[in-house]
From TrEMBL:
It is a multi-pass membrane protein. It is found in: Cell membrane. It comes from the Bacteria. The keyword Mitochondrion does not apply. The chain crosses the membrane at residues 286-311, 342-361, 381-403. It holds the Pfam family FtsX. Keywords: Cell membrane, Membrane, Transmembrane, Transmembrane helix. Its main location: membrane. This is FtsX-like permease family protein. The keyword Transmembrane applies. Residues 292-405 form the ABC3 transporter permease C-terminal domain.
Length: 413
């Protein structure tokens, strides 16, 4: 006898329920670990990619995290406004390719309307409209790839960035705001997909956002009509944030130092995200440890159940020995039967964890506003390999007990 597979297959068929339960337990424990690790990586990569368009961010002194969440991930909160003087100085500062005001306050059917300048809409020339063109005059808008509007459509902004504004008080305020009702934006272009929350944004001239809220537009009333800089500092209102595109890395550090003062905070979004990643990493490590502990407990419980089953079938293995099977054959048969169950459960868990991560990433993308690329990294393979190796080693216990069982004792049981 050299081929243990017929014996293993026969045992699997005779103990279908045990096989199914074992596979499910191991698969679920592996899938949990795979999902935790891959989702943390996907969240890290997706959030970092969403911040790629913001080299340097200026805001009023306060929480850097809140500034990043508000300006980059469009999670508006009540933050202090940055003085218009800062925009005037940033626009003319040395080493600045563009300084773009970021102004919120309105939406249309759930899509945030963001006031800015054309340079920022096209990321300083890095982007080209997928359709149409960028706005060139007041009352025009360019939309993100996910905004369900055709070119040429006209929309009227709704005051407020949150759905809560749709209650009775919000409706009364909305209908009383004649300025919003009188303003109409015509869609003149669509941006290519960026796979972040800005795909759902409607970008309009910042002058329109300021004017509709009763603020100066950054230009003297008698000045020649134009959008964006040069600004007239006397007519610049406050704004939530300014996105600066520096000419170089050296210029970026110089600008950060220049605008980090009592009047404003200047930060690299990557630095703020790194702090968040450290927190996420700690949570991930804790969750991975819990998942690994669960896997070990599941494997031990499964092997204890299998051990009881093997001891109950020791007469079967004694008969094999009696008809000529060697101790090594019996050892390999029992070891392979347990190891294959662990391996099958681990591979099933890998597939289950991968599918679960994809579904979870899609759901989280709708909540966070940015795509999360799911992938399997070295950590997942190490987790899988470690479990299979541990299962193979622990499987030697029932194999060894069966190996040393005397034939006479087994036949008499």
């Amino acid at each position: 006898m050299f081929n243990p597979l017929p014996i293993i297959i026969a045992d699997y068929r005779r103990n279908r329920l045990m096989v199914v339960v074992t596979l499910l337990l191991v698969a679920i424990s592996v899938a949990t670990g795979i999902t935790v690790i891959s989702q943390e990586r996907a969240l890290r990569q997706g959030s970092a990619r969403a911040a790629d368009d913001f080299d340097l961010l200026l805001g009023s002194p306060g929480s850097p995290t809140q500034l990043v969440l508000t300006a980059i991930y469009l999670k508006p909160q009540a933050i202090p406004l940055l003085s218009g003087d800062v925009l005037d100085r940033a626009s003319t500062a040395r080493g600045v390719r563009y300084a773009a005001p970021i102004a919120f306050g309105d939406r249309w059917q759930g899509y945030p309307i963001v006031g800015t300048i054309a340079n920022f809409a096209l990321r300083g020339g890095q982007l080209q409209p997928a359709e149409g063109r960028v706005f060139q005059q007041r009352g025009e808008a360019i939309i993100g790839a996910a905004v369900k509007l055709p070119l040429g459509a006209q929309i009227t902004p709704q005051h407020g960035m949150h759905e809560e504004d749709d209650d009775d008080e919000g409706d009364a305020h909305h209908h009383a705001d004649a300025a919003h009702q009188a303003l109409h934006y015509r869609i003149v272009g669509r941006l290519p997909a960026r796979h972040n929350i800005w795909d759902s944004a409607i970008l309009v001239p910042v002058e329109d956002v300021w004017a509709v809220h009763g603020l100066p537009t950054g230009h003297a009333p008698d000045a020649a009509p134009h959008l964006g800089p040069p600004w007239d500092a006397q007519y610049l209102p406050g704004m939530p944030a300014i996105a600066i595109k520096p000419d170089s890395i050296a210029a970026a550090y110089g600008l950060r130092t220049q605008f980090r003062n009592a009047q404003s905070q200047a930060l690299f979004p990557a630095e703020v995200l790194n702090d968040l990643y450290l927190t996420l990493g700690n949570v991930r490590d804790l969750m991975a440890l819990l998942a690994l502990s669960t896997q070990v407990l599941v494997v031990v419980a499964v092997l204890m159940a299998l051990l009881v089953g093997f001891l109950a079938r020791r007469r079967q293995y004694a008969v094999l020995r009696a008809i000529g099977a060697s101790r090594a054959y019996v050892f390999c048969t029992v070891w392979a039967e347990v190891s294959l169950l662990i391996l099958g459960g681990a591979l099933s868990g890998l597939l289950l964890g991968w599918c679960g991560s994809l579904l979870l990433a899609r759901w989280l993308a709708t909540r966070t506003g940015f795509a999360m690329p799911v992938s399997l990294g070295m950590a997942e393979w190490l987790l899988l390999g470690g479990l299979v190796l541990a299962g193979a080693l622990i499987a030697m216990l029932p194999a060894w007990l069966t190996f040393r069982q005397p034939i006479a004792a087994g036949l008499s049981s």
